[in-house]
Amino acid sequence: MVPGRMHWEVSLFLSSPVSFCAPGDSILFPTDHVSRGITEGGKILQETFIDSYDPSVLRRVQYLLYEIKRSNSKRPWQSCCHSTRTEHAEIHFIEDVFQEQRSDPSVHCSITWYMSWSPCGDCCGAIRDFLKEQPNVNLVIYVARIYWHKEENNRQGLRSLVNIGVSIRVMDLPAYSYCWRTFVDDEDNDEDDYWPRHFAPWIMLYSLELQSILQNIPSCLAISTDENQTPIFSLCVEDEEQKRALTSANP
Description:
7 helices, 251 residues, globular, 3-stranded antiparallel beta sheet, alpha/beta
């Protein structure tokens, strides 16, 4: 142990191997954006939501639950989509979903995304271009995981979005509960709420890493596997800047 160094480690043991591949890189991906785990009514299946938004596992397919509120309408538009082998979900939203729902460009529009993976650097660029073309659009992004969090292009992309006014947050328990009530197909009309308290350690880890990204200081989160392909999440804080990031993320 290095003097003055904080080292926290959280390990999760799973009964099956976990995929560490990025969203969009599997030949098993669907060829459209709404065929896997999404109902015809635009709801995500319960098992798909639970599996895809669990921050302790790393799934290939990227899901995006979206809510569009316009100032001239009392009822928001709520639905969901996922990535394909060739296109991330946020690009589908920008190029297809929003265009289909487009109304008077002078009307203020508030968009909220709940994403299983944060946008990559390239998608952040596309989002910036989209927002420049749509000055009356406000975007809030919640993420369950941070996409390839050590890649500088992705880190810069997230910072660039925040710099133009986009709010980016790691999904907390109230966000999971809201998604469950709003976007998940409740075929049994079960009124029980979804409050996955066992997600708390990973919510904390990703929240701290997001703080490091937005404050432009070195990564404090490491994700690796052991000989059984069990994922291991480690948080290492080695200097005062990272300690301040911890403090700001957990006041």
